[in-house]
Amino acid sequence: xxxxxxxxxxxxxxxxxxxxxxxxxxxxxxxxxxxxxxxxxxxxxxxxxxxxxxxxxxxxxxxxxxxxxxxxxxxxxxxxxxxxxxxxxxxxxxxxxxxxxxxxxxxxxxxxxxxxxxxxxxxxxxxxxxxxxxxxxxxxxxxxxxxxxxxxxxxxxxxxxxxxxxxxxxxxxxxxxxxxxxxxxxxxxxxxxxxxxxxxxxxxxxxxxxxxxxxxxxxxxxxxxxxxxxxxxxxxxxxxxxxxxxxxxxxxxxxxxxxxxxxxxxxxxxxxxxxxxxxxxxxxxxx
Length: 287
Known about the structure:
about 30% strand; 10-stranded mixed β-sheet; Pseudouridine synthase
């Protein structure tokens, strides 16, 4: 088996066949390697028109079923820092998502996603549904639903903007509001033709490194909104390789973190606020 990405598509011809044996022969991998690939989410099972990940090596197959494996050793070897549980509310939970952890998998794997981590680590075990997202490079608070009813209610709350999200960012340069009589600067530059509104205020300034720690409240949730808005006012986020200062940021992680989250309880509608502990906030390491 090479280190390059390969796909395998097999059709089951009898109930006596099993996925591990077939894939082992087709991919020239050991049974252990195939089972590990299954746990990491790169093996899929199709029956009629329904396709889903295949994780159980002993699943009984039927003639006409199809087995698909999307095997990329580079992807499967990736690791991430574990997520941290902030609050377990039964039908949903709040987590600290670390740098590099994904909110959505692909056909090649899902083992570095927050929902897969929660499914395999939260006790008692429950299904995990992502109801909103953070970029791969962004850290901070994330809600995971554990029941479809909670997922629907929470997803609706985010879509209707009945939530509040507060971020901290470390940026290059000194933040000064345009109007010195105001401590908060509102940025309302459209993103991809859509309304986007961010409110920025200064928390601290490090003169020796010419960096500012800012707080950002957002009214909308456009892709890369905070990164784009801060760069637009001359304050690119440290570690932002897309909108930042390339020669300065190649070795640093993105310094953007969701530190506070307010959501309506999916059962009562009562507003609930969650805060990151001090040691997980960017302010803890800013000096």
